[in-house]
């Protein structure tokens, strides 16, 4: 590709993730977006992933589920001259560190909120990671066809709970059974809600923000109420500020109903206008890598193993940060200096995996891996070495003690643990007092996959003893006195040898802080 073509191709990319609490409507919105993109999916492909309420011991089911989840991990479509990549952030029992890491590979995020529930815990966690990255966040408040909270309260909650200003791009005219439409502030029009499409869907507004045509809506009290609310927003609400949106300091707020496909297109059109093209990436030595530079580079943010039990394949997911990928190209893996030919690559389209021939910065490709890659690895073409900044470590919340069932098989047990931990599948800690191995994760599925892979790939049967939820807090080694460990906390070290306490609960942490007020306790992300 010539430089000009490359720059154009990169500028067309929009790569984002949808963050939400389970059941807010992420799947429904995703399916609508794919429809707009003309991607015809086998009905319910995205859905199938959720409904697989498999028994935990049924490994074939997990395999099947993981097979589906890889194809819906990245969904690509073209719309309005843009190439859109949606990265899935699984919820429910699929939630894992991968979910967090996926947010390292996107340029913006869409936050879906259930209008009846407001901001829920999982959204809050995912939001914080986006905020830390300073990426633009777009908010879609869903399920307007049902009765929900007052729109004013929902927008205020953004500021109160998440600490981000919200700017209403549109405003509901009624809710639930009384839903009449959207007052579209940004496009200066009213979008009518109808269960069946009939007549014109948009009504123009005049310069004063009043309906410019005759319509029965004018006679309704809800219309006057909405005009009052719009006035209030103008006086007391945030101002539209594209620069603030770009920095993730202001979130444009859209209302709608994904299920009835109301307001989704309006959202998508505005989103594509303001969402950033692939952003530059920083290297460990503070160099900036522009997305449209000629040299290819990318990093691995996720490795999914055992997708197909017959092949024992692993797929390393690469976010391309710069340049162009061509199948068969040679790259260097920075961590080992090893040269690797990328001939076995895949891209995820709709409900199938396809071999990908070319891709550019902003795209995600999957590389079939035989054990070369680790999470956080950088690959690059050409001679100039590139190493992107390390991926952050996340604070696990669930813990399990782990031992080998067969004491004679310690070797495979240790090998398996080392490799899976290096790969980023789970986190490993060791107790100061007993030397026990303790695994940490953010989601239960990580343990299940660990146990399964230990058996399948390393022939090591493990015994896992749940320790439940803990609050992990790191402590400066200079301040550490082993006597600080008590029955309410457990002193362990992480893989780097850094000490941390696993507190039973927040109360135990507070008790500790009261006792040792000078000791600084820190969390990872
Ligand atoms: P998720 O991926 O965020 O977990 O949510 P998903 O889209 O699966 O939606 C969760 C439930 O909410 C689904 O109902 C879905 O139909 C419903 N839903 C999504 N958007 C809207 C909306 O705009 N309005 C209304 N009223 N409902 C919405 P379910 O009963 O759990 O699933 P299903 O059996 O209907 O598929």
Automatic annotation (TrEMBL):
Recorded hits in Gene3D superfamilies, A to Z, give: P-loop containing nucleotide triphosphate hydrolases, Peptide chain release factor 3, domain III, Translation factors
Q: Per its UniProt record, what CDD domains does this chain match? A: RF3, RF3_II, RF3_III
Domain of life per record:
Bacteria
In terms of Pfam families, this protein maps to: EF-G_D2, GTP_EFTU, RF3_C
The UniProt gene name for this protein comes to prfC
Principal localization reads cytoplasm
* Subcellular location per the Swiss-Prot or TrEMBL entry: Cytoplasm
Q: Which UniProt keywords apply?
A: Cytoplasm, GTP-binding, Nucleotide-binding, Protein biosynthesis
CC annotations in GO: cytosol
Q: Biological process (GO) annotations? A: regulation of translational termination
> Where's the Tr-type G domain?
11-281
The job of this chain, per UniProt, is described as: Increases the formation of ribosomal termination complexes and stimulates activities of RF-1 and RF-2. It binds guanine nucleotides and has strong preference for UGA stop codons. It may interact directly with the ribosome. The stimulation of RF-1 and RF-2 is significantly reduced by GTP and GDP, but not by GMP.
Q: Give the protein family.
A: Belongs to the TRAFAC class translation factor GTPase superfamily. Classic translation factor GTPase family. PrfC subfamily.
Name of the protein: Peptide chain release factor 3
Q: Where does GTP bind?
A: 20-27, 88-92, 142-145
Among the GO molecular function terms of this UniProt record, one is: translation release factor activity, codon nonspecific
């Amino acid at each position: 590709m010539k430089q000009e073509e490359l720059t154009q191709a990169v500028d067309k990319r929009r790569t984002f993730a949808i963050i939400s609490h389970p059941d807010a409507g992420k799947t429904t919105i995703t399916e609508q977006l794919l429809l707009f993109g003309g991607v015809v999916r086998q009905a319910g492909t995205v859905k199938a992933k959720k409904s697989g309420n498999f028994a935990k011991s049924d490994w074939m089911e997990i395999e099947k589920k993981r097979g589906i989840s890889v194809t819906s991990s990245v969904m690509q479509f073209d719309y309005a001259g843009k190439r859109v990549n949606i990265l899935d952030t699984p919820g429910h029992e699929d939630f894992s560190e991968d979910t967090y890491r996926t947010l390292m590979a996107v340029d913006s995020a869409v936050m879906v909120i259930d209008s009846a529930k407001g901001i829920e815990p999982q959204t809050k966690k995912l939001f914080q990671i986006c905020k830390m990255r300073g990426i633009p966040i777009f908010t879609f408040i869903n399920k307007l066809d049902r009765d929900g909270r007052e729109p004013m309260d929902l927008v205020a909650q953004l500021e109160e709970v998440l600490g981000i200003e919200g700017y209403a791009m549109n405003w509901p005219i009624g809710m639930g059974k009384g839903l009449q439409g959207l007052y579209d502030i940004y496009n200066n029009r009213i979008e009518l809600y109808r269960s069946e499409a009939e007549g014109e869907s948009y009504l123009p507004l005049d310069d004063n923000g009043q309906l410019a045509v005759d319509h029965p809506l004018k006679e309704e009290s809800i219309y006057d109420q909405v005009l009052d609310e719009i006035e209030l927003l103008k006086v007391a609400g945030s101002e539209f500020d594209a620069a603030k949106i770009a920095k993730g300091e202001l979130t444009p707020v859209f209302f709608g109903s994904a299920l009835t496909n109301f307001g989704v297109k309006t959202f998508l059109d505005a989103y594509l206008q303001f969402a950033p093209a692939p952003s530059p990436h920083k290297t460990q030595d503070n160099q900036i890598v522009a997305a449209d530079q000629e040299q290819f580079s990318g990093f691995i943010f996720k490795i999914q193993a055992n997708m197909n039990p017959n092949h024992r394949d692993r797929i390393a997911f690469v976010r391309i940060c710069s340049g162009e990928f061509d199948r068969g190209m040679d790259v260097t893996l920075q961590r080992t200096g090893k040269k690797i030919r990328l001939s076995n690559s895949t891209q995820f389209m709709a409900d199938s995996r396809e071999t990908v021939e070319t891709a550019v910065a902003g795209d995600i490709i999957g590389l079939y891996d035989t054990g070369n890659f680790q999470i956080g690895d950088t690959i690059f073409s050409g001679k100039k070495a590139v190493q992107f900044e390390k991926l952050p470590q996340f604070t696990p919340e669930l813990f399990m003690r782990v031992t080998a069932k067969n004491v004679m098989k310690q070797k495979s047990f240790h090998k398996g643990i080392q490799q899976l931990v290096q790969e980023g599948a789970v986190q490993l800690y060791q107790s100061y007092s007993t030397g026990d191995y303790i695994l940490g994760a953010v989601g239960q599925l990580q343990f299940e996959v660990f146990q399964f892979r230990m058996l399948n790939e390393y022939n090591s049967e493990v015994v896992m003893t749940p320790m439940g939820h803990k609050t992990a807090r790191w402590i400066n080694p200079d301040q550490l006195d082993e006597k600080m460990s008590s029955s309410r906390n457990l002193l362990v070290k992480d893989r780097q040898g850094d000490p941390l306490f696993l507190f039973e609960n927040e109360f135990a942490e507070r008790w500790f802080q009261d006792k040792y007020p000078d000791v600084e306790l820190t969390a990872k992300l």
